[in-house]
Hints:
Residues 31-58 form a coiled coil. The chain is an all-alpha fold.
Amino acid sequence: xxEQPTPEALEALEARIMDLEVKASYTxxxxxxxxxxxxxxQQQIDALINEVRQLRQQVPEGGQGAPRNLRDELPPHY
Length: 78
């Protein structure tokens, strides 16, 4: 035989279910916000990658584009 839950127990269960539904709703909203943030960041990364590619194409190989030793640099004049 199964016992019927008391009205107090039913109220407690309903309150717990409501709390879980509210938390799930907030979690869904947060997930959507995070997805949009990741999407925007990926767009920025893609734009930066394209910009670096363009800059690399503009720099001549060897010559001035070659890595320099900072010790060979002249100090700035004030």
